[in-house]
Amino acid sequence: MADIALTRRQVIQTLLALCAGGVCLLGDEVNATFRGRWNNANHDPTFENFRDLSAIITLQDDMDAQAARDIYKALMDEPWGPSHMTRLHTKIGAALAAHDGKSTRPPMQDASWQFDDGEKWFARHVLEIWYTGIYANADRPRARILYDAALMFGCAPALPVPMVQPLGFGNWALAPEKPA
Question: For the segment 105-117, what is each residue's pLDDT rounded down to a tens digit?
Answer without folding.
Answer: 566 666 666 788 8
